[in-house]
Amino acid sequence: MELVSLRNVGFTYAYGDKPALNDVSLTIEPGLLYGVVGLNASGKSTLCSVVRGIIPHFHHGELTGEVKIKGRDLLEWDPAELSKSIGYVFQNPFTQISGVKDTVFEEIALGLENLGVDREEMIDRVTTVVRELGLEALIRKNPNELSGGQRQKVAFASIIAMDADFIIIDEPTSQLDPDASEAVFGIIRKLKERGKSIILVEHKIDLMAEYADRIIVMKAGRVVMEGPAREVLVSDELSQAGVPYPEVTELAFALANAGKPLRSVPITRAEARELVSARIKEAPHAHSAL
Ligand SMILES: Nc1ncnc2c1ncn2[C@@H]1O[C@H](COP(=O)(O)OP(=O)(O)OP(=O)(O)O)[C@@H](O)[C@H]1O
Question: What is the pLDDT of residues 188-247, one digit of tens each?
């Protein structure tokens, strides 16, 4: 069964002057990682909020069209039940921290407490995720004293600990340095390997190329393309939506423009390395291959 289906969905915020989503039709299949890309204000977070039921349950406005989550109409879902069923890492980690817990350890455990998980299992799950994300040094700190990057990691840890089978992650690395971003993507890779269904909003297109199975491209509230990452990340629609190509894709296009196309257009570094080394082997004079 489809995990999510949207048919002709529109949404205008209560105080919005134009639709944040406009005639969006989309299907999300289970077990895949969907990357959502688009310029600022193109509707990515709003799309996540609809799928998570924050719209219309908490953010008010005019929702039109049909939204089904796990086969059931969004309006029939109890918001509390939906929040247990879908993990959501917000874009702004300041929104996510509860403010009611004194330590990071308790903060990460809060979601499990709400799910009614027993104490021993709770400690076990929190300890595991703390280790996975390298948060040992923070567990006794007050969540309110953390930096933006630290909060983002703690928010992420809380959701991973809840172990939902469907997770929405809105720009998890916006406050993180490159090393911490790598660590977070390492966790996303593990979630993928565990068969989780994931919707990920992320501006870093090279990371998307590495991790996403399918890509949703948004422009001015509309979905302008949805398809396999390999097709979308080399498409005209991507650049028409103002989204850059992956670095290696850009380089391959430059080579093609210079009359030296590679056999196919890579989207990841590993693919680019293979294509370039194949080209060097084929060329009679290695130095003129590229
Ligand atoms: N609470 C709100 N009330 C009114 N308008 C809003 C609200 N939240 C978002 N919007 C508007 O809805 C549109 C889509 O915003 P949204 O945050 O979904 O875009 P986005 O693609 O996630 O942007 P970003 O990459 O900057 O996070 C924008 O025009 C934005 O100003």
Answer: 888 899 899 999 999 999 999 999 999 999 999 999 999 999 999 999 999 999 999 999
CATH number of this structure's domain 4-245 = 3.40.50.300
For residue 7, how far is its CA from the centre of ligand 1 (angstroms)?
20
Domain ranges within the chain, ordered by starting residue: 4-245, 246-290
Strands 72-73 and 61-69: antiparallel
Residue 51: both structure tokens together: 């799928």
| Spatial separation of the C-alpha atoms in residues 45 and 54, rounded to whole Å | 11
Short-list 219, 242, 227, CA closest to 22 = 219
Ligand 1 neighbourhood includes 41 CB (under 6 angstroms): yes
Nearest-angstrom CA–CA distance, 205 and 38: 10
Task: Please name the residue that has the structure tokens 């030296």.
Answer: 260
**ipTM of the shown complex:** 0.98
* pTM more than 0.80: yes
Task: Locate 88 and state its tokens.
Answer: 């959501």
Q: Is the CB of 58 under 6 A from ligand 1?
A: no
Mutate to test the pocket of ligand 1, among 18, 46, 50 (most ligand atoms within 8 A of CB): 46
What is the per-residue pLDDT across 250-287, written as a single tens digit (0 to 9) for each? Answer: 999 999 999 989 999 999 999 999 998 888 887 766 55
